[in-house]
Please model this.
Amino acid sequence: MGVLRLENVRKSFGAVPVIHGVDLEIPSGEFVVFVGPSGCGKSTLLRIIAGLEPVTAGQIKLDGIVVNNLEPAERRVAMVFQSYALYPHMTARKNMAFGLKIAGLSKHDIETRIADAARALQIEQLLDRIPKDLSGGQRQRVAIGRAIVREPQLFLFDEPLSNLDAALRVQTRIEIAKLHKLVDSTMIYVTHDQVEAMTLADRIVVMNSGRVEQVGTPLELYRQPRNLFVAGFIGSPMMNFLPVDIVESPRGRSAVGANGAAISFAGAPVGPATLGIRPENLSVAADGQGFIAGTLVLEEHLGEHRLIHAVAADGTELIAKLPDGPAYPADANLHFTFDPRHTHLFGADGVRIGSTQEQGTLEHA
Amino acid sequence: MSEIAKFAAGHDRMTKRHWLSAETRASIDRVQTILVYIILGAGAFLMVAPFLWMFTTSLRPTTEAFNLPPRWLPGFDATLESYQRLLSSGVPIGRFFMNSLTMSTAVTLGYVATTTIAGYAFARLRFPFKNALFVILLLSLMVPIQTTLVPLFLLMRGLGLVDSQWAIILPGLTGAFAPGMSGVFGIFMMRQFFLTLPKELFEAARVDGSNHFLTFWAVALPLARPQIAALSVIIFTMTWNDYFLPLIFLNSIDQMVLPVGIMSIREPVGNSSATSEVIAAVALSILPLLVVFLVAQRWIVDSFVRAGVKG
Model:
């Protein structure tokens, strides 16, 4: 088991509210990632779930039982910290055994659990070393081992890969994904790295300023972001946002871009809106074609593809992700077009109106 | 010239000694090192000289005690006469020694235990008026020890503890009136150390099911070993050397401790001709401190180096 339910969870530090009423249900065995920019409240929410921070209001239920006033150990949660938080004076074995001894397990059970976890994490040969004598990756594994041996209902990870180098981060990420399959427990993982979120999560919870902006599978968030914030946060490089005006025209309601090109939206309200296009959906059109024009600012060649940074006449910054090819001349005036099936329209309030996939077509004049 | 050599040469020109040859620069470095050693050596000699003089004088006849220039080394004609005279003088130096040892050990153990716990509480626990209490504690540093002496004396007299080592040990146990050192020092030192430990360490212990006491005992205390060693040495030394409190509270020769007891040597032995015996007694009295320092120096240095690194 390990069904977590948050009901209108609020948290304030003094008079400053940091979590503004979060409702969330996480079924048993699910891998959920909290993602958001620094200061969005994701770590605070994790610490509230862990029992390290009291809630100001609302309820936290684990398997239907309100656990607001229970200590972390009573909630049967285990946590892996960003800084590993291994006890520096204890060997890896003692680090893993500490919680089990407190729980009153027999020596035999403790040894068995440590041996099983060490085998799964391939740290058997490290058990008698103290943290100082372990590398960052090894420490992280011991920290994960310390969590596993307690056989918790809920695994909590607080940015566990932040202190690792890029290569080790990818490797450990894969190991955490394998671990989830192995232990099949509910896991909540906090990160500001959307790649970790996209690759690890069954569902992602996008947070901003103490509020949940959207909950969904990684592809749902990528394909159907609920608002401008989610659209901008998920996807790298971030989505391009073009300010447009939806107007009545002989072709119905549409937004008119450069060169007379227009994209029509059947159900969109008349007025200002934002058109979102991911960099990978932008392409460079022939002169005089395309929906928007911009002056080339920077071209980054990344091997298999390149990133074109341009700025439109109204100051809108554009990024296009194109297959690698010959460089454009400096300050070139580029015209961009896109596949209308992969665009997103957001109203003046920043909330998604729909995607042109359902309701729009791009027509060049 | 390779690109790397060119770069290295260019970098070298940028340094201020680029016009000097490599040999000259090496010579300058050598001279600088020698100068540093000479200065440090002179400093070290100034520190060690009084001790050296004391040990040498204790091994010489009294008549040579104030010779100028002083003798720094005992020489082949060294004699244990002063020690023999001291031990046969009837002064219960052994009793003084044991009294000092008992008192200093008891005060040190009590002081370190209570200030460590208090330091941990101020650093890691949440309780009402924590900051206000800490400020009051710091303010108490401003109260001179002499102003509290009379009330303390009256208190101890009321308890019937005057002329008993308990008069010094009891207030010392909590650092309330530790000889020469306020308890606030220990609390402050340990609090500052516990504050440098990462918060996550304590949270990890909490997630593991540990309560405050177990976290203190199993996590915080082992990490504080260097600080505890340093604090213990400081308190032991201060208590061992304290003259003021024993002079006030202890009267009988049975209760006397070394610093006050040594002064009484002059009486039975006679007069200023007892200088060698006094010096021999002082030499004996600092031996335990030397042992404590030698044993604990690694931790002491470690504790101060860490304090420096962590700011």
Notes: Residues 3-79 of chain B form one domain. Chain B is about 70% helix and 0% strand. The two ends of chain B are 46 Å apart (CA to CA). Chain B touches chain A through 16 residues (CB under 8 Å).
